[in-house]
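Late entry, guanosine-5'-triphosphate complex.
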Amino acid sequence: MGFLKPYVGKYSRPFLTAVLFLLFEALCDLMQPTIMSKIIDVGVAGGDLHYVFKMGGLMLLITALGAISASTRNVVSSHVSQNFGTELRSNLFRKIQSLSFANLDRFDRASLVTRLTNDVNQVQVFVNGLMRIFVKAPLLCLGGLVMATRLNPRLAVVLAVVVPVVAILIVINMRVGFPKFKSVQKALDRVNGSMREYLSGVRVVKAFNRFDYEVAKFNVANEEFQTKSVSAIRNMAVFSPLIMLTVNLGIVAVLWIGGLRVSQGNMQVGHIIAFTNYMTQILFSLMMISMVFNMYVRAKASAVRIGEVFDEENVMQWDAGQSVEAGNGRIEFENVSFSYEGEPVLKRITFTCNPGDTVGIIGSTGSGKSSLVNLLPRFYDVDGGTIKVDGQDIRDLEPKQLREKIAIVPQKTTLFTGTILENIQWGREGATFEEVEQAAKMAQAHDFITGTPDGYNTRLGQGGVNLSGGQKQRVSIARALVRNPEILILDDSTSAVDVATEAKIKEALKAYAKGLTCLLIAQRITSVMDADLIVVLDQGELVGYGTHDELLKTCDVYQQIYRSQIGKEVQ
Ligand code: GTP
Ligand code: MG
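Prediction complete; structure with ligand written out below:
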């Protein structure tokens, strides 16, 4: 729970202010029954109306003061808990953003969403609850005990039985409840996860008519959530009335014993009323304590889950970076090996890419092309060997500066909700409209964008659903180009673009790419044929390295690809 420390320091003052008001509130509450017993025993029994009015006025005054301090305390406590929740959420979001892919792979994405929303909320609710009962409930409880005992030591024997029983019930409730609420949270993760997966694949689900299957899958998660919640709530449902019952039995005992003594003339009626009032106050405070303990049980389960994210050590060194020297985008792969987990995906890859060159990367699907280029911006770190950019090992560099140099058009196009203009500008903060337009022209996106009624201000739905596959790819390329990078990585970025448009994009890039180092992954051999250098990958190994003509002579795998796509015999 180390992550909570900074907030304790920050919010201790307003917290203590709230507690101060609480204290006052509790004192006001404690005075009421005694005053009432006086009104009854002295005023009513003695027929002294003046006394009744005097004490009644005092009672009103104390109630008013208590109410004022209660509302002030409410304002302070909501302020503290809301601010605390917002900050915690924002810091958690930042932490998640700072984590590397290898770290993030350890968490279920849906569970990160629940941690960010529901879990933070639970902790926030607990903090708020704490400010409502902290000090007040124990004070009411202890104060009630003291006042009641002072009022009538004989009746207090009942308390000696009731209070320990209630305390034991509360402890058992907590012990049983904690693991249950933890499993409720896990089940909620699964509900969120299954909904998320369904929504992201909704088109496929419709196309394959797999509604029933998906509904059944969702229902399994949903019912599990129900079962777990019911079991946790049942726990509360048993214990809360049990506590209530114990205290009410105590009140019955007080009325019985008191009744006997009044009829014997040993006790006054006002004492019994005041005593039962103190008893209900004690009951009320114990109920509050057990309620906040329930909140605590949930909040603890949530805090553990939030703590897991904060405790996640970034497997990549982030801050110990040298600053990146100005260079011109020379890339060297030296003996690079890499695996996600287990099986190696890349094996001892060595090649050099000179500044300003375009390097084509080709190979069958699953051969490791995307994995290879994803190492460059350090989405993952190599297991063996080194990757150098302009002579510096990328692991020694300040990652932010390294990524500044690189623009990547990922294989899976990702666009954001917003206008096309915003999506392209996203590539570089502060890019002007002219720059955006120029990038879009190079990516051959300008024409189709201006063809829409709203042009660059056309709004894209989530993930760019209202664009075609090829249009999305071109917007994505424009976003990379506006960045003005030294190294441009295109991961199969023209796969959904027709051959003629692709040729135009390559033409524009060639003019633009002077001095720009470009890594170009492609499935079509025609896309890489005229590159300065072609790297051929096969099952994670580099099996060919050279120009198109050289490879046609020396590389079997390249020859096979050429034959299958161009359909001619080599030589
Ligand atoms: P295409 O894009 O289909 O042409 O393939 P590629 O050459 O880009 O292959 P890629 O580098 O994406 O994948 C190489 C191998 O790594 C495959 O066997 C995948 O199963 C594996 N792989 C890719 N991404 C991940 C990942 O995020 N996690 C894990 N565990 N394995 C992955
Ligand atoms: Mg790929």
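Residues 340-341, 345, 363, 365-371, 411, 492 surround guanosine-5'-triphosphate (ligand 1) (CB under 6 Å). Will revisit in the morning.
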